[in-house]
Amino acid sequence: MSNWIDIAALDEIPQRGARMVKTALGCVAVFRTGADEVFALDNACPHKAGPLAEGIVHGKSVTCPLHNWIISLETGEAQGQDEGRVATYPARIENGRVLLDRAFLRARVAA
Amino acid sequence: MTQKLVVIGAGMASGRVLEHLFDAGADYDVTLFNAEARGNYNRIMLSPVLSGDKTYDDIVTHDADWYAEHGVTCRFGEHVTEIDRDAKTVTGQNGTVPYDKLLIATGSAPFIIPVQGKDLPGVITYRDLDDTNAMIDAAARGGKAVVIGGGLLGLEAAAGLVERGMDVTVLHLMGHLMERQLDESAGFLLRRDLHDKGVKVICQASTAAILGDTHVEGVMLEDNTGLEADLVVMAVGIRPETRLATDAGLSVARGVEVNAQMQTSDPDILAVGECVEFDGHLFGLVAPLYDQAKVVARTLLDEPAAFVVKELSTKLKVTGCDLFSAGDFADGEGREDIVFRDPMRGVYRRLVVEDDILVGAVMYGDTADSSWYFGLIRDKTDISEMRDTLIFGPAYQGGTPLDPLAAVAALPRDAEICGCNGICKGQIEDAIAGGATDLGTVRATTKASGSCGTCTGLVEQVLAVTLGDDFVVPAAASICGCTDMTHEDVRRMIKSQKLTSMPAVWQECGWKTSCGCHVCRPALNFYLLADWPLEYQDDPQSRFINERKHANIQKDGTFSVVPRMWGGITTPDELRAIADAADKYMVPTVKVTGGQRIDLLGVKSEDLPDIWADLNAAGMVSGHAYSKGLRTVKTCVGTDHCRFGTQDSTGLGIKLEKELWGSWTPHKLKLAVSGCPRNCAEATCKDIGVVCVDSGYQVSIGGAAGMDVKETELLVQVPTEQDAINVIKAVTQLYRENAKYLDRIYKWMGKVGLDWIKKRIVDDLDERAALVDRFELSQSIYRKDPWAEHSSQKADSYRPLANLSLEAAE
After folding, report:
1. What ipTM goes with this model?
2. CATH number at residue A8
């Protein structure tokens, strides 16, 4: 069985935006940057679990909609003075489709 | 023994193969088929032919003498109908020839978008000399041309047609031109330069139909915009021409599949050029085709050779539009951007670095150093030593990094500092010697940095160099870390330089990041839509979630829904619909708000489109309780019921709300209308308040009851309801046009002063009317219900992209 799961067409995620993917163990946010890169992170800010998928995406970061923590899409680390990290998962684009590594379905410990 | 080589297609790739073969003295008897009635010519040069800079004769690469000299049997103007691999023959319209080796070089076919009218006379593609001649003929008759496709080919066609005197509009499906080669910023500059050359560009333009009876007459877009056209050029893309290969049973994916020796699945049949697919790649630019041609020739000579895919670079052949792109310039993990912008010269340069290696470059305006950068990309040079000065090009490598102050100190007195006003360093030094000690006085005495403001930093550096320690560079409150400019500077630029898109602002104001951040993007989005309501399209991705999803996010990620109750008036039917919706969507909390309406709290994102549709069905619309825009108009019951009421305050409140709803403002905008000075609607702590009196309406502004508590100040008393409505529209528009994003009216008023506002709205009735007109123009776009639009058109975006709850982990 392939390790990559076909999630959706890239076009279904707006540029500089995100969509949410539901799993049995919580939600994952799939981000698309202005340069058409995709990143997958737990959809919960390390601060107060704000839904990162609803944040403003800029460069390779997202700003949490609740209290403006800025999270790196690459590392999941909170930027600047804030400290914390969310889990990240491998994601890629192939033929205009967004693929996530099956590993993201495994048990995730809430950060 | 002499072998027979048959070549199908006389394009640039096969021409090059034959040159290599004959140069190597190969013993081949060659038959060359070409569907076009001519031999090899340089297709890249069709654009100069179209623009009139070159003729066909200039671009012929192989003439009749050359073919004769090398014994090539030319079968030009003849279509090949069949390849028989068992018999090893190729059949053309005029007969069959045998082959020992066959080379397929059928190139590519233009992609034709399948719309009505695509076959009308006057609709042409842009691939070969016949197309080019057809365009030249059409241009000779003058009139209007529409080019569909804003890629390399489409833009070259457009520029050529403009040169030949046509009125040209380019339609491009994507958000910016040449999106595969350029990023948004470079795309913006390209669009601006093309515009200056007379090429109109419409992006995000989806062609719905080509109109006309016997000849093309126009193009209709999906949004029902109609464009007149005497000529339509389709340049949306190409696809490999693979029909012969497919019919012959060769392995074909998107293109004819070849190995590194350029052999197809049949080792006696080779393929080259745009019809080929190698390792998942297709090829459209000439450099790899020439590499392939070398390999083909060596394979035919039985010499070892292998084709490898190399980095490519792109240049556009349009005079006055210097652009270059190479490598991979997408943002990515571990990648860093180095961005340089020079707004005055229209220069943009972006380098993408990964692990100390340059992996991509986009340049616009000044491409003189492009080959140096391309070399760094191709050779994967370690750039860690020169990273600090890499962006400035090869001239700045080596030596110590420049101290900006030392550089300013070294400038001669006649060096121009302020380009807008032509102010030289010497004039600024004289002003300083004459007593100017800060930016404000320099600006007042010399005008330097007083126009576009981009030289502000430079003027400050001249002050610092001249005054030494006496001058402290003020920490200007810039919008955010993406720019050194203030809100006021940026607004001035947006208006004076007619910047109508976000990439335009980033470029012209020298943004230091590729696409802004959560602080500047919402501000820019507001400024652009407020100043250019028709030209600018609202960008939801630059809005805070509440405004993007038209609901207020709560701490648990759910949303609140507040339907509008005009002037605070509701009906039993509306209340029933609200109650039904609360039941149906299991709304945990129903609350009455301070703005006289009802808040449904705790609605899940995915339920939003449905609850809105239900509320819409009962006649209700969004209350914009989430927006930096008009919130509520609170009213008392006025003369309808109250024994003290002097005017119909409820009626005026409803009218105001119906006129103002949907408008975006720098911060939230709350209104109230009280029917008498007892002021039950608390109008004197609102952004705009009306207190009715016997003799008319007192309009006061600048109140607040939030972090700061402020009482309004009287703007004007007017005699009629219509006057009151116009004054309120005018002051709202003045606030929209001038205030800093996130300043409520009282903060804005604190900066400009009530007198400044009065001068424009009370004393100058023409200005008042003009403001009302501009407000109405904006409202013609924005006075609509976002709930109805989102629940009917964007409902999917509120739901999960995928639900894998039932998917097993392994």
Report:
1. 0.92
2. 2.102.10.10
